[in-house]
Amino acid sequence: MMEKKSDKTIKIALAGNPNSGKTTVFNNITGAHQSVGNWPGVTVEKKSGLVKYKDREIEVVDLPGIYSLTAYSIEEIVARNFLIDEKPDVVVDIVDAANLERNLYLAVQFLELGIPLIIALNMVDVSEARGITIDVKKLSEMLEIPVVATVARSNKGTSELLDQTVKLATDKKGWKPANLCYGGDIITGINDIEKLLGEKDIYSNKYPKRWLAIKSLEGDQPILDMIKKDEAIGQECSKICEKINKHIKITLDQDAESLISDYRYGYIVGITKEIVKRKKESRLYLSDKIDMVLTNRILGPIIMLLVLYGIYEFTFRGSELPVIWFEKFFELLSTIVSSILPESIFRSLIVSGLIDGVGSVLSFVPLLMFMFFAIAILEDSGYIARIAYMMDRVLRWFGLHGSSVMALIISGGISGGCAVPGVMATRTLKGSKERIATMLVLPFMNCGAKLPVFAILIAAFFAKNEAMIMFLLTLLSWFFALIAAKLLRITILKGPKTPFVMELPPYRLPTFKGLLIHTWERTWMYIKKAGTVILAISILLWIMMTFPRLTQDKIDSFNEKKETLIQEFLSIPEVNKIIGNGQGIVAFDKYYDLYAQGSEKEREIVTAYDKVKRGIDKIGYDEQSAALEGSFAGIIGKALTTLTNPLGFEYRTNIALIGGFAAKEVILSTLGTAYSLGEGVSEEPEPLSVKLQKEPGWNQLTAFTLIIFMMLYVPCFVTVITIKKESNWHWALFSMLYSLVSAYVVALIVHQAGLFFGVGF
Amino acid sequence: MKKIISMRNMSDKQAGIVTKVSVSGEMGRRIRDMGLVKGTRIQITGRAPLYDPVAIKVRDYTLTLRNNEADFIEVEVDDGEKE
User: Fold this and answer.
1) At A415, is the pLDDT very low, low, confident or very high (cuts 50, 70, 90)?
2) Which residue from A105, A300, A499 is facing B30, i.e. has the nearest CB?
């Protein structure tokens, strides 16, 4: 923060309706120099950037996309507070030329606020293609502000926009609230309140008084509350508003608020009549024609299913290889570190704690990138709004909103997915109760990490009906999520339905640059998390599964057993002959291939060698298993058996489920360790599925109960952290608690019913 | 002949002029912010698979709203005739 910055830096705010191309303009101006964060205290994304333009430094703040400057949504409040508190030098309002009237509604409100304003009349190419010509110069004259025509997609008009912005900022004309022509009653009211406020000087520095007066008449709660801080003025102000409202009600059967917006739109229509020329009256644009197919009552849902299916194909097929590369990379890293560091507790921490833990999370990065890319296409093209439109009616039965559907699908609604981007995708629902409800039921979906665990269990116990069971599980997850949503919405999340009043933006071809930026922003958020919270939890879980360690006696006894096996092998006369005294068992390795193809006697030695190797592996696994059993996780797992016995889970399953809190795929590796197996060096290692089949106490019912439990129980902690970030700790903790209880209750019912009816043995 | 009906009862492709938005508070504000005020010309352009929400053309763009939200909006249409 150089002192120089203050006099040379120009602070501008980008404002505009959603879908006006604001983000593209922002990207054009800032390029790579942008940072993403949240507005303080709310989960609305804040983007800003610092760029050098000519000899000026420009700080650009991207305000949330809004339709109006009321206090209707968090976005509007955020934007409004920023303008009033930070007083940027210039507001650049991005106005969609093809949707002029509604976009000017916001511009008019900026004019009334009086902040130095410049309009970027964006997408003039689209409006021209529609046969609409806009007289830019006349618009500028009528509004008395600079207007620059731009085509953000192809970066046209950006430098002129910046030139004008710098010029306007340098002029320092200050705030000049515009006086819109309202009808007699409203004008009287505005004048009266303005005069009232003028008697005291408390607000005048921050807010234009006339604007406060208009807002009071509009019934704007935050402003009214502020005025009420001075009791006398507050009361007088309410009186005026009441009087005006009453009069308007009698004469026009309306209220002041609606009358004000009527006048604003009247003013806008007056302007557009002067400046807009239409070649043809046809109102059916290409976008509408596409909608006749894509949102057709019959074709629409079918196409939607195909599109969603396509996303999965794209995400999972596309990321298959990169995910393997990532996994291989971390495996390689483990191996290298293992070979460099001497065997010690420190090495175990680095390898099992850090690399494996963080690695398992980072391995998801390619998958998420593909997923985010696909979502960005849906968003930037405008299709996502259509999905919400088509699904709203169904989701409303369950107390959700049309916009919930995308989040549910991203979380694994078709099978495969991730609740982390899912939770982030609920942002479109704003601060509503539907949003919290959606967030809380998302983790029930079958995410990509649960799938491999399900797959193993299904392969082991339901080999005949694999596909059918998988499909059944997808249906069940929707069933549970929707039922849970309904229950939440009629109990703790009871509340009115969020209005659906929503724009279906025209279809647009996404730009590759825009898609990449979207994808990267979200991926980076995920990576940052892996570097911080996930790291900490990985270490914690490692500690739980490592300490307390086996006593030296026990370690010695395992080593002794290994040594006995080795000595037995080494004492075979032929072996002794070829590798000599004092050599370890590894010395035989170089003869292995030769002997394996040799005489019968030589092959016998090879067989004996294999047996010893397998024996050593087995002892190693027994040791790991014993260590796990004695660890904190093992102790907890055992302590939980009283609770989990009615579900048919034994302590090893419990340990795996505890590990699953870190990430669901950990269940698989923990089950592997806990059941004394894994990727053995020996030949013919038994796959986990085979091993589980042989375990006493495991049967179809146990497996199915476990699957149901895993589907519902505690979201992985990355999801919990994301829920916390998107709402608060209260909901994050609640999400853990209620899902655990739901999982337990449902699994208990399934298992006990299974036992009662004698199924699944 | 002109008559005034609620937006919910408009038939597909039917056009009309908004005569009244009879809801205040957030819902009313939201509806007006989106450009649905007295005197605005609208046309029904489609309905979702379960006949709800409804999509309309207003001020050159497409807006969707639920039927129970459309109930608040009164529209003057040509009697019996469809555009």
Assistant:
1) low
2) A499
Cβ(A114)–Cβ(A42) below 8 Å: no
The one-letter amino acid code at B64 reads T
Between A456 and A706, the more confident residue is A706
Q: Is the pLDDT of residue A203 over 70?
A: no
Cα–Cα distance between A446 and A711 in angstroms, integer?
Answer: 7
What average pLDDT does range A563-579 have in this prediction? Answer: 83
pTM metric for this prediction: 0.82
CB-based burial, A518-547: b 16+ in 10 Å, e otherwise: bbbebbebbeebbeebbbebbbebbebbbe
Q: With CA atoms as reference, report the closest residue to A445 among A712, A714, A662.
A: A712
Neighbours of A163 (CB within 10 A): 14
Mean pLDDT of chain A: 86
Model confidence pLDDT, tens digit, residues A235-247: 999 999 999 999 9
Domains of chain A, CATH where assigned: 3-171 (3.40.50.300), 184-278 (1.10.287.1770), 299-546 (no CATH), 573-757 (no CATH)
Q: Which residues of B touch A505 (CB under 8 A)?
A: 61
Cis peptide before A548 (omega within 30 of 0): yes
State residue A296's pLDDT score: 94
Task: Give the distance between the most distant pair of CA atoms in chain A.
Answer: 115
Using CA atoms, how far apart are residues A508 and A748, in angstroms rounded to an integer? 50
Query: Is the Cβ–Cβ distance between A423 and A439 less than 8 Å?
Result: yes
Whether residue A458 contacts residue A668, with contact meaning beta carbons closer than 8 Å, is answered with no
Is B57 in the A-facing interface, judged by CB distances under 8 Å? yes
Query: Which 8-state DSSP code applies to residue A631?
Result: S
Side chain identity, residue A376? A
Q: What is the pLDDT of residues A591-608, one digit of tens each?
A: 888 888 888 888 888 888
SS3 sequence, A642-678?
HHHHHHCCCHHHHHHHHHCCCCCCHHHHHHHHHCCCC
Nearest residue to A445 via CA among A399, A494, A405, A478: A478
- Each residue of A26-41: b (16+ CB within 10 Å) or e? bbbbbeeebebeebee
Burial of A367 (0-12, 13-18, 19+ CB in 10 A): buried
Q: Which residues of A touch B46 (CB under 8 A)?
A: 291-292, 295-297
Give the minimum alpha-carbon distance from B27 to chain A in angstroms, rounded to a whole number. 7
Residue closest to A356 by CA, chosen among A673, A677, A655:
A673
Structure tokens at A607: 């067989």
| Cβ–Cβ below 8 Å for B49 and A393 | yes
Does A99 reach chain B within 8 Å, measured CB to CB?
A: yes
Task: State the fold for domain B2-78.
Answer: SH3 type barrels. (2.30.30)
| Cβ-Cβ contacts under 8 Å, B48 against chain A | 295, 297, 300, 389-390, 392-393
Q: Provide the residue ranges of all domains of chain B, joining segments of one domain with +.
A: 2-78
Q: Read off the tokens for A354.
A: 């850090």
Q: Please count the residues of chain B.
A: 83
Q: Residue B48 — φ and ψ, nearest 5°?
A: -70, 165
**Residue matched to tokens 């995920």:** A526
Contact list in B for residue A434 (CB cut-off 8 A) is none
3-state secondary structure A265-312: HHHHHHHHHHHEEECCCCCCCHHHHHHHHHCCCCHHHHHHHHHHHHHH
SS3 content of chain B, % helix, strand, coil (to 5): 20, 40, 40
Tell me what pLDDT residue A659 has.
82
Give yes or no for residue A36 having a pLDDT over 80. Answer: no
